[in-house]
Amino acid sequence: MLSSQQQIISFVASRLASGTPVWLCTILKTWGSSPRPVGAMLACTVEGELVGSLSGGCIEEDFLEQLRDGSLKSQYDVKGQPFTVRYGETEAEQARLKLPCGGQLHVLLEYIEPTQANQQVFTQLASSLESHTKISRVLNLETGAISTEDHSGEDAVVMERNKMTHSLSPMYRLLLLGAGDVAKFVAEMALALEYDVTLCDPRPNYLDNWHVDGVETTSRLPDDVVRERFSNPYSGIIALAHDPRVDDMALMEALKTDAFYIGAMGSERTSAARRERLPELGLTKDEIDILRAPIGFEIQSKTPAEIAISIMAEVTAVRHGVE
Known about the structure:
Elements: H1 4-17, E1 22-31, E2 41-45, E3 50-52, H2 58-69, H3 71-79, E4 83-87, H4 91-97, E5 104-112, H5 116-130, E6 135-140, E7 146-149, E8 157-160, E9 163-168, E10 173-177, H6 181-192, E11 196-200, E12 216-218, H7 222-229, E13 235-239, H8 244-254, E14 261-264, H9 268-277, H10 285-288, H11 304-319
Parallel strand pairs: 10-11, 10-13, 11-12, 13-14
Antiparallel strand pairs: 1-2, 1-5, 2-3, 4-5, 6-7, 6-9, 8-9
Helix pairs in contact: 1-5, 6-11, 7-8
């Protein structure tokens, strides 16, 4: 499974590699009730093969109509460079495009030829995202030349004179510990939120009847899994086993990493007992203080599904810097 950005970048890379030019559309600015955020993308071949979204349907239809009637290419040929289309500036246009009340957005359109330079750039972008490496796409607005920078900023899109810098995000990963009902609901919600999800449970037979489509399962030792694949800022570790042999083994390694989220399910009493045990595993007070336990937002959750909602709400808040 790939994130939406990875899907689009990989799509562009593959089409360029096959000699097919691609239109790439990027949202630069939004006002009001815009359906998609700044930095969202849509890619489309001249034959109409499309991936990504700008509005959920209305603007895509307008784009495809202009693609079919040739007016889109005509605009590019006249300008000879990337150009911006402003949607929803009038009430009539908002009604025509079925945009939410007051919604406006500026979309940058690029016609990307399958040159060797462009193929190399998008291959590098796809490779960096796959390896969870920060990267930005840099576009010269006057010439259309595309390059990369080995970092990504806080802002999805930064416009500076004749340059656009578009920060791309690698796919976030979640490691769930413990094959139980809560883990099933957490996994399903995490997949919907475009996380790559792995469930780990080394206990014999626990994985036999646990399955969620799209989730990798492993019975390897949790600390090894954390160390090898879940130690970067795009990783989260969620302990749900209610078994110190599983949870503590993962936390022992996780709390020494740069993972953006580390949490463990349990009551206040269970969480306090866990914090008393963790120093015995060689963890310092500062490392233990990183742990979020009890896990999730307090919503008086009782059922596995409600607990999963509270967990993923907290994970989402932490990912977006909301404490």
